[in-house]
Structures are given as structure tokens and as C-alpha cells.
From TrEMBL:
It holds the Pfam family Lactamase_B. Residues 21-178 form the Metallo-beta-lactamase domain. InterPro entries: Metallo-B-lactamas, NDM-1-like, RibonucZ/Hydroxyglut_hydro. The lineage of its organism: Bacteria, Bacillati, Actinomycetota, Actinomycetes, Propionibacteriales. This is Metallo-beta-lactamase domain-containing protein. It comes from the Bacteria.
């Protein structure tokens, strides 16, 4: 667990509890706190979140970067959780035109922008925090294997995300939901590895999003594996 600042916590589920080792983010406002993802369920996240929120009078909102099992597995530990389907996600955040509409979520003196970015799963979201300028990208961009079952959607989503940033929303760091790269350029761990020696750092520079967008544009409509220093695009 790491406090990025006094209202922003980054939690990682230990690799020894599950090889996915997903990251979970807690963004706290004056009225609400947003917990983004709940991990694989092989760890007691609730205890950690309760501890992080101790002494703060805020309503907890639990939502997801996307609906895959390694990000929703701990849902049962929480009383109320935003649903996983596109319909449920759109309804909760007030998105009437999926995926083209970007909406805001006010946590109380802290406004987030919620950006639909389907392509990896279907209900994928990116979250931009205007306060810290962190861009949370789930499994759509992180130092690892970016699995892409829906190539056209993913390309459009990354383009929209890059355009959102270029349109006056500067990013300090891009933070995703896993680490699967080593600290050697272009080299990932074997699939399922639950020990990560010489791991790549979590945070990606904002230029990495530009790099991904340009790589997808150059690749064109045919899915292809793209090995870069900090990520590998992995069609499936
Ligand atoms: Zn994942």
C-alpha cells in the first residue's frame, strides 16, 4: 500500500496471493471515495480499504476499470458495487452515448473524468484525476502485455484517450493495473510468473500513451503484436 498523496492510495495485491498482482486505486474526495477495482479476491481488500478510510466521513463507491475476474474478484467483500456490464457502468456514471461520451464524477472537492475505452474487455474505463493529473488506465495501458481481443475498438479508444489528454488534460503519470514487463526494454515475464525479479516500475510517462496511439495508427486495421520498451500489444 502506498499513499501517493494524502487522498490517493495505491494498493497492490501481493503476487504470492495471485500471479496477476493487480493494482487497486482509492481516490478520496470530501464526500465520496472511489475504489477502482477489487483484485482477484484472494486477499482481504476490505480490511485494507477500511483502514485507509478510517476517520474519514465519506461514502465508498466501488467501480471497475473493466469486468475481468482479476479486477472484480473481491466485489463480494463490499456492500454496494457498480455493475460490470456496459449498461450498468454507463447508467451509474451517466454516460448516455457509449463509448464516445466523457463524463465527470465529483467526489467532493475532487473531480474525475471518466472515459470509456472498450477494446480489452468491453466495459473498460479510464479515469483522469484533475487534482493529481493521474490517468488510470486499467488493463488498456500498463507496463505489460496489453491483450486486445477487439482491435478496432481498442484503436479508437486509445485514440480518443490521447485526444482527451491533448485537449488540455495534462498527465503526470499513466497508472495501469498490472506489471508484466521487466526493467529490460521490451522484455516481459513468462505468463503466470508469480515472482518478478527486476520489475518495471508501475508508473508510465504520459509520452507512453502517445507512443501507443502512434503505434496502433501505424499498425493499421490488421491486428499485430507490437513489442515496445514499456509494453507489448498482444492481439488475441
Ligand atoms: Zn487484469
Amino acid at each position: 500500500m502506498h499513499w501517493y498523496d494524502e487522498r490517493t492510495a495505491i494498493v497492490r495485491q501481493a503476487l504470492r496471493t495471485n500471479f496477476e498482482g493487480p493494482f487497486v486505486y482509492l481516490l478520496i474526495g470530501s464526500e465520496r471515495a472511489l475504489l477502482l477495482d477489487t483484485g482477484t479476491g484472494h486477499a482481504d481488500l476490505r480490511v485494507v480499504v477500511d483502514e485507509l478510510l478510517a476517520g474519514r466521513d465519506v461514502e465508498l463507491v466501488v467501480a471497475h476499470t473493466h469486468g475481468h475476474g482479476d479486477h472484480v474478484g473481491g466485489d463480494g467483500q463490499f456492500d454496494r458495487v457498480v455493475g460490470r456490464s456496459v449498461e450498468e457502468v454507463a447508467a451509474f456514471f451517466g454516460i448516455t452515448s457509449w463509448p464516445g461520451e466523457i463524463v465527470s464524477l465529483d467526489l467532493g472537492e475532487r473531480v474525475l473524468d471518466v472515459i470509456p475505452i472498450p477494446g480489452h474487455e468491453g466495459s473498460d474505463l479510464a479515469v483522469y484525476d484533475r487534482e493529481t493529473r493521474l490517468l488510470l488506465t486499467g488493463d488498456s495501458l500498463y507496463p505489460g502485455r496489453l491483450y486486445v481481443p477487439d482491435w478496432p475498438s481498442y484503436r479508437s479508444s486509445i485514440r480518443r484517450l490521447a485526444e482527451f489528454v491533448a485537449a488540455g488534460n495534462p498527465v503526470e503519470w499513466v497508472l495501469g493495473a498490472h506489471i508484466e514487463m521487466t526493467d529490460r526494454p521490451g522484455e516481459d515475464y513468462p505468463m503466470g510468473a508469480d515472482v518478478h525479479a527486476d520489475e518495471h516500475r508501475l508508473e508510465l510517462a504520459p509520452e507512453t500513451l502517445t507512443e501507443l496511439d502512434e503505434a496502433l495508427a501505424a499498425a493499421g486495421p490488421e491486428p499485430g503484436r507490437l513489442v515496445h520498451d514499456h509494453f507489448v500489444v498482444f492481439p488475441r
